[in-house]
């Protein structure tokens, strides 16, 4: 698929907010639709994904570092859900832009995860996401992500 | 080549994005409040609605949409069920000219008393919109409810 042309970094706080919110929507929709490559491409090459709440159920390392590991983790997660017949939706909400420093932006949002399994839909978990985003020639990218599950220590 | 998920030239500007989100919040509140005809008025007269919710998958024209939606809304009202559609993970892009394409998730919460509130379903909604005479109009809408899609796939796999 052709790469779309990139516009400049949003200038004002409101513009940043709107573009970041849409970035998250596209990123989550990519993951939920099974596009591991597209999702991994939303991180910098040295991007870091940290699970603060370690869970044996998820069977993932606490830190995932770099594009290769991120892609592998996404593929594994997508394959796991598919094998269980689960349709997953990440509902991004309550987003705040906590700080802006040049091309770096720190964000915070709630992401409840809703799963549909065997034709029944239920809230699977409530998570809180904190990111360091950077604006590059490819647009917004995640440099550091921290995810905390409310139901785990 | 991978499609970049980023800030792109077809991403809508802030004023337009805010206008769209405001439209959808008002649009869905009409439905949840039981103002079905006001909700229908947000559709173009020749709008189409395709969905796996109804027995007939495509409704052509606002009148045909209204017949199905009224029947559904009446059923929920008769059951004493309050619905809340929470829209999120919202993407808006330009679609040539002044038309806008949107794609978002809808989380449906239902409340029936006595009892409580439960997660009913999630759906993915995709619209084509046009701004006319100071208001947004839905030209076409596609809704896929995840639980029904899953049951349909399971049925096909098992038969």
Walk me through this protein's architecture:
The complex is a heterodimer of chains A (153) and B (159). Chain A is of the alpha+beta class and 153 residues long. Chain A has 3 helices and 7 strands, in the order ααββαβββββ. Chain A has helices at residues 13-32, 36-40, 66-84; strands at residues 43-51, 63-65, 86-90, 93-101, 104-117, 120-136, 139-149. In chain A, strands 1, 2, 3, 4, 5, 6 and 7 form a 7-stranded mixed β-sheet that branches. The model of chain A is unreliable at 1-5 (pLDDT under 50). Chain B has 159 residues and is α+β, with helices and mostly antiparallel strands. Chain B has 4 helices and 6 strands. A 6-stranded mixed β-sheet of chain B has the order 2-1-6-5-4-3. Chain B is globular, with a radius of gyration of 17 Å. At the A-B interface, helix 1, helix 2, strand 3, strand 5 and strand 6 of A face helix 1, strand 3, strand 4, strand 5 and helix 4 of B.
What's a quick, concise take on this entry?
Chain A is α+β, with helices and mostly antiparallel strands and about 150 residues long. In chain A, about 30% of the residues lie in helices and about 45% in strands.
